[in-house]
Amino acid sequence: MLGRNELCPCGSGRKYKKCCLNKDVVSERASRKVSLSQKQYSELYTKIQQFAKQDKYQDEYEKAKEMFYIVEDEAINTKFERFFNTYFIQDHIMENKKVMTVEFYENNRDNLTTRDVEILRNLFESYVGIYEVTEVKDDKILLKDCLTDKEVYTEDVNLLKDFKVGSSMIARIVTVDDISILIDVTISISDAVKDVICNDIKHLFGQYEDLYKDMKTFLIHHTHILYKYMQQLLDPSIAEYLKQQKESKMNQAAQEVAVTQDEVIEDECKVCGVLRQNVEKEHIDACISFWNEYKQANGEVKGSENGWAAAVEYHIKKVAGENITQAQISKKYEISPSTLGKRYKDLKVS
To answer: SUPFAM superfamilies, alphabetically (predicted)?
Structure first.
């Protein structure tokens, strides 16, 4: 064991008592503070949890599950039960427009301590966020919220001992007695994942910016989004499931577009189809070509395809010098001579 006056082995050149020994003392003090805050938080959280188990909240519990979980698989979802419990108690907006922590406060305010009330107020303001380590000290670590650009110190140095300046994470911070602690599981993420999530969240916020005064308010109301990212990161099967769902939706959308296009093409070619069924081989190409030019020049046309096809055949045969009457063509297409005369006039006018 090193003496207090020996050089510290960390290579700083300072005596052990002024270097790492001091760091250990500072770190230990911070650890004790965090432990006390965690204990206070856990005690209150347990009370809220018991309150939320009342039968009258069972329907809300089921609604929260539908919102929170990605897959319908009990074995997989069991892994995230702790996350879900936090979400249900602190984030799920019930039918009465309140979250469970507010419901608990309003039903128990006369029995709560001043500290309990303060913790509850901080819980109201908490959310899952994306954080980057910007400074590491012996007794605290400075985190920057990548979505709000706000900075916060956390004394939870033991939990974050493997994080360096520049490291990123998904985390949830709650302040208890002026000590910021991290609750639930804190997940380390790469810069690439951080950028993807931040861009997605900012894009969503941009769509609903008029409804929320700032990004923090948006996150408080949509914490489930970050919890869903956490589920994907912690279980690859969920990420694969979402990938397959996305591909399936894209394929379905492509099929729907293709069907729509086929319907449009089919609709546009109905006159051509009628012509092919009725016009002799020596005239069919001329009829189809004339009709396509007419369509291109005039856009959408109204009326039955038989009337237009009859007028086209009559026109082409007249141009070819055949001795043909409107009565003959009208009978062939089962339309009245007046309909043929009207469509033929339309063709001539164009």
So the answer is: Cyclin-like, Sec-C motif
State which residues form the domain around 342.
269-349
Burial degree of 167 (CB within 10 A; 0-12, 13-18, 19+): buried
Domain count, the chain: 2
Instruction: Supply 277's token pair.
Output: 């069924």
pTM recorded for the entire structure:
0.65
The one-character DSSP state at 185 is E
Q: What is the chain's Cα-based Rg? A: 36
Strands of 231-314 (E only): list them. none
My answer on whether 163 and 277 are in the same domain is no
User: Same domain, yes or no, for 191 and 325?
Assistant: no
Which of the 8 DSSP states describes residue 192?
A: H
The enclosing domain of 309 has a CATH number of: 1.10.472.10
Same domain for 344 and 195: no
3 state SS of 25: helix
Structure-derived torsion over alpha carbons of residues 44, 45, 47, 53, reported in degrees to the nearest 10:
170
